[in-house]
Specification:
Four copies of one chain form a homotetramer.
Chain A: H1 2-31, H2 38-45, H3 49-55, H4 59-84, H5 90-107, H6 109-118, H7 124-150, H8 159-179, H9 186-201, H10 207-228
Helix pairs in contact in A: 1-2, 1-6, 4-5, 5-6, 5-8, 5-9, 5-10, 7-8, 8-9, 9-10
The structure holds a DNA duplex.
Chain lengths: 232, 232, 232, 232
DNA sequence: CATGAATGAGTCTTCATTCAT
DNA sequence: CATGAATGAAGACTCATTCAT
């Protein structure tokens, strides 16, 4: 009996946290971090300011948690795309990875803005965190590329440069795509970008294979949606 | 007599404007736009708040002017690199363009941060301006790539996607480079990135040519420094 | 439980609003609108600046509300004096009206200053509002005088001119009276002014009646004080 | 020779002073004292701020001088109207005085605003000066009325009250008139107001005489314009 | 005499955060 | 747990006045 109540309480707590999370994500995406006041969030969420501070240490803490969770989610999806199914070719591996990014940010447009725009010049403290995350992501890619280079599966003069350029072209294009085109035609956009990247890395691939890889991973992700969606 | 005085006065005004500009650039770069108060700028510049408002309408106006002038300068240098010397090969053209970007942002590290980081999520009004500038830059590149594709000099499925990915990989890498490595070894970094891009576009090139292109444009820019450096 | 708290809270809010109102009225009266800073008001009221902006949009908003409420109160009292008791003679009607003005501004000396002095040349926006209120008041008096002129109860060449001159002599004298004499001897002052006006309008009257009219309305107003006093 | 130059210099000084005076009068009238900056005045006058402070101690000093000179001019005209020609009747005396006020403020609409609107709630120091001037003016009128009352030429219970009410009705009406009607039909307006006042004071008069008095003094003033117009 | 760039105290206003209820 | 009134530090901006040229 006691347990039950506690559980329900826990549940409620989680619900409110989620509510704040999602509301904040939306407002941050609409107006930007600095143009969003705590009151804006609480009013839209239908709670009091006091309650806000019951769930988050402060405004920055909320943003950080939002960022972390988004990053985690994005990373999870990415990991799934790359590791869940042993890719048969390098082209498949990268096709799945890039397409997964498209899918993620399309599904969570608000969060894309938070990850790729708001987080960028927030403040020196957060900057560091952001930079570290980027570093880590570049590093991971660098390791992969170094490995593949050794095996002769990619041909690039510098794995680090290629890693950053890879991620940069991806993120920049997705940002651009979300800003203009209304998330339509994901397939076509992903395809063109993947070709750009595969060519850049001098990976062997066949066009029709790439198209199939994209189709496959998109289907998989749609089916396993619930597994990744922590909120919203 | 009156003329002389007026001239000297005008000169001093220009100098002060420059002083504010450079001071602001530095502090914005260090602490970020929102973490920088007008007082921070004036104190570091050794002037009074009143004087600040004599030269700029407000803080945002200063930032916008800083951004515009940086963008202009960057664009000038880029144009020089591409058009001043009729490039003999596509590889030369892109090598010169990319290297010029490296050179510019290395010379004006503060401003690079302002252009590439601070400007990103500033506020809805500026956001629009920033987006438009990006659009324009992508569009220009798209036109170039479309042309070259017709001539069979590049091989990409979609000129627009390639254009954005090109610029994205460039800017992301330069940002990364400036954040970590202290602008050393520009040559090596530029080289690797150029290869990445030339491969992505399937442009024909020879390694040693690329290296020469880089060396040449860097030399030219160093010689013509004064022509581009509006401030600092 | 929630209700009670909410009620008490509402009550306290009203009290605080009143507190700011009254404090502001006093300081505006003492030092003038432009010489009064928001800090002056909050310090004297013993609240923080933030609290001020919780109750009023800004300094001008406070002034405007103060003005409006004062105008309303003054108008209410005036209406009471004129319409509550069907006056038997024109002399009685005007005696009651003029005396009511004296009584009002004597009771709310601070607000009199705000209505008659501070509001005058405040700023173009408020100027318009002020002018409109005056216009309306003149217009009302003009209608009354036109009516009475038709009935042969007043004798004046131009009802509009008489209306403005009537109000002007009243307000000017009350202002003068408040500035010098410390609100003593209201009866005598009101009497002399009423005679001036009744003569100007060529209204028939008997001295002793006028004296009685004044006495009566003053008594009535003192008894019904609570009905009119919105604050202070 | 030295004299001549000095004279010319003096003349120039006076001219510039006048220029500032007139420009200020106009801007104060348009936008109000507090909404007018020293820069506004100097820019419109085509001089530098420095020059402004060469001729006036500060902004308030300018206003005060403007006020004083206006008051002096108004007083001069008033005195001329009353004393230059020995009035044959009380009605003539007051007709001339009131009409002169109309004429003055019509001629100097800017200054009317400064005298009657801007001066009112300026600041505690000026307030005192303004009050004193009013007192003096009321006092003078009171003396006149007391005299006439003794002689049985006016019939009022209290000379002081009548004096203030007299001035108040006059000034209020002129203010109203200037605000609405574009100074047209001075004759008709003056006539109605004079009747109001003469009736209030129970002065004997004939309508056609009053009309003649008005006509006469207006003619005289137009002819002697140059004698009174210190500026503008 | 004239200039106008420079000054900086003074104001308004916002908003993240706290805490009594 | 929830509330939202209260806080006050912090920041943007203005403008009367000065003074070196």
């Amino acid at each position: 009996m006691v347990y039950k109540r506690s559980d329900r309480t826990e549940e409620r707590k989680d619900e409110k946290r989620k509510l704040i999370f999602e509301t904040a994500a939306q407002i941050f995406a609409e107006n930007g971090y600095h143009q969003t006041s705590v009151k804006d969030i609480t009013e839209k969420a239908g709670i009091s300011v006091g309650t806000f501070y019951l769930y988050f240490k402060n405004k920055e803490d909320l943003f950080e948690k939002l960022y972390d969770e988004t990053a985690q989610m994005s990373s999870d999806i990415s990991k799934y795309a790359i590791y869940e199914k042993k890719s048969e070719t390098v082209a498949e591996r990268f096709s799945r990875a890039v397409t997964a990014s498209f899918w993620t940010f399309q599904k969570y447009k608000d969060l894309a803005r938070i990850m790729l725009i708001e987080a960028v010049g927030l403040n020196p403290q957060f900057e560091k965190k952001y930079a570290e995350l980027m570093q880590r992501s570049y590093k991971e890619m660098e390791i992969v590329l170094t490995e593949l280079k050794k095996k002769g599966l990619v041909d690039i003069p510098d794995a680090k440069v290629a890693a950053v350029a890879f991620e940069g072209s991806c993120m920049t294009y997705i940002t651009y795509w979300l800003r203009t085109d209304d998330k339509s035609d994901l397939n076509a956009h992903a395809y063109s970008l993947i070709i750009f990247i595969l060519q850049a890395l001098k990976v062997n691939f066949k066009d029709e294979d790439v198209k199939r890889y994209i189709k496959d991973i998109l289907e998989e992700l749609e089916n396993k949606k619930d597994r990744f969606m922590k909120f919203r």
